[in-house]
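Researcher: I'm preparing a figure for a lab meeting and need a structural model of a single chain. I don't have an experimental structure, so a prediction will have to do for now. The sequence is pasted below. Please return the structure as tokens so I can convert it later.
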Amino acid sequence: MATQTTAVPGRITFPQVAIVLQTAALFFQAATAGLLLSSSSGAALHDVGSRVMYGASMLYVLAAILAWRPGGGSPLPVLYASGFLVLASVQVVLGITHVASLHVPLGILMFGLSVLDLARALTPRRRAQRSGDPL
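Model: Understood. Here is the structure written out token by token.
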């Protein structure tokens, strides 16, 4: 017999922590990208940040899978998290090959999508109204 669990209102969940970490890592990457242009330490910080961002993307996939499968949550965050991991992989390749014309816009897109996903993850859910309930 499978038991469906739901998050307790007001409690922070593992997927929420993972998406916060991913969004913060992407913001850090944007800041260190600017440092790349103005200081020598910017390259080292951006390199370390890229590893943290990639790890955060993998952690988000793990958190989404754990919330979905054993926890009985929605599979939609797994799709979002997997998409972020694919984008992060492309971003790493573009960064290593120094294709800034695609690397920078993709980074901006990833940060924007991560903020949107963070808002989705932190917004309280309203229960769907039953078909017989009045509006």
